[in-house]
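Forwarding the complex inputs:
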Amino acid sequence: MFKAKLFLCLVAFELFLLTVLQWRSGIVAAADHTLLIEKRELAAQMKLTDLALWTEARYTRHPSQTDFFSAFQDSPGSPDHFPAGSIMAPPSQFHRQ
Amino acid sequence: MKQLKILEFALAALLRRKFKNFAILAMFSFTVAILSSVLSLTHALKEETAYILQDVPDLIVQRVIGGRHDLIPLQYRKEVAAIRGVTGVEPRYWGYYYDALTRANYTLIGTGGTTANLTLLDGHLPAESGQSAIGLGVAEMRGSTQSGELILVNSKNTGVLYEVSGIFRSESRLLTNDLVVLTDDDIIRFFGYPDGQATDLVVTVPNSNEIQTVAAKIKKILPDTRPITKRELIRTYDMVFNWRSGMMLTVFSAAVIAFCIIAWDKATGISGEEKQEIGILKAVGWDTADVLALKFWEGLSLSLLSLLTGLILSYIHIALFNGVILSSVIRGWSVLFPGFQIEPSFPLYHIWLMTFCTIVPYVASTVIPTWKTAITDPDSVMRG
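Prediction (whole assembly, two chains):
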C-alpha cells in the first residue's frame, strides 16, 4: 500500500501548503490595511475617481467618467481600437437592472 | 481498507500509463492555475478598488454636448449648490496629455486647492505655480527622479518647465502611476481652458440616501449635464473586474475548450488496453461496483492532485511573480502600466467553483465509459 499512502501524504501536504498560503494571505492583508487606508485617503483628497490601469484611451483610463459613445468613437458598432476594451466589461450604464 | 487497496491498484494503473497521465496532470494543473490566477487577481483588484473608492466624491457633474463630455460653466455651481442636501460644489480641472517623447498618455489634474500632507507622497503637493507632483510611472519614464524637473508641451505648443515638488510612492501606483498634479491655475493655463469653465463639478451630499434624489434634481434643472453618483462609480469597477468580463471569457473559454477536448476524448471511448484490463478484472471476479470504484479513484486522484497543484501554482504566480503571465494580457496597449502588487486570496466559493468545474466532469468522464464497458460480458470485452 506504499503508493496509496504516498498519494494520501502528497494530498495532505498540498492541502496543508494551501492552508498555510491562505493563512499568509490573511496576515499580509491585515498588515496592508494601513496602506489601504492611505490609498483611500489619497483618492479622497485628490478627488480621484479611477484606477491608473489602462492609459491608452479616455474610456479605459476613466471608465466611470466616460460618455456613452466613447466605445464607438468612429461609428456605432465599430470595432474597439484598444485591447483593454475587450478586457474590461462595458460601462455599468449599459447594464439595466 | 478495501477502498485503500482499490486506490493502490488505481495508482498502479495510472503509473502504467505514466507519460499520458503526467501530460494530463501537467495540462490540467496549468488550466486550473490560469483560471484560478484570473479569478484570484480580479477578486483582489475588485476588493481593493471597492475599498479605495469608498471616499470618492458623492457626485460628479459633467456637461455633455453632442454625446461628448464637455467643459462645464462655473455658474452651474450656484444652481447645484442651491439644491437642498448639497453642502459643497467644487470645480475639478483635469485633462489628458500625450507625451510624444515617451509615447505615453498622462493624466493632468489640478490640486483643487488641497495642500494636505499625503503619506503616499514623497515631498508635497504643488503649493504655487510652476510646481508639480508626479506619479512614479511618469517620474521613471521622464527621469524626473534625478533631475527634479518635468517639461511638458502646452496647448500653444510651448514647452513648460515644472519643478517636481513630490513623487507619489510606488504603493500608490494603482491610483497615481500616470498622474501629473499641478495647481488649478497651471492646469487652466496649460490646456488653455476658457475662463469660467471647469472639467467637471464635485458635489458633496453628506446624506448618502439623498444622493440619487440630488442627481435627479441636477438632471432636471440642468438638462445638459450628467451626474455620476458614487454608487455608479463603484459599480463600474465592480463590472470592470467582474469575472464575466471579456478577458475572463477569453481565458476561461480557451481553458474550458482544452479541458473539454480531454473529457470528450475520454468520454467517447476508452482504449482497447483499458477495455482489456476491465475485462480481465471482471473475469478474475471483480464486481462492476469495484471496477467503477477503481475508475472513480483513478479519476479523482488525478483531478484532485491537479486541482491542488494548480491552486498552489496560481498562488505562487500571483504572490511571487506578480501575475506575470496575466499582466501582459491585462496590460493592453498601456505604455504606463502600474503592474500588480497584489496578495492573492481564494474565497471559498472560488475553490468550490474550481472543484465543480474540474473534478466533477473529469471523474464523470472517467467513470461513465467504464460503466458501459463493465456491464458488458468480460469475454466479449477481452476479445475486443
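Residues 2-45 of chain A form one domain.
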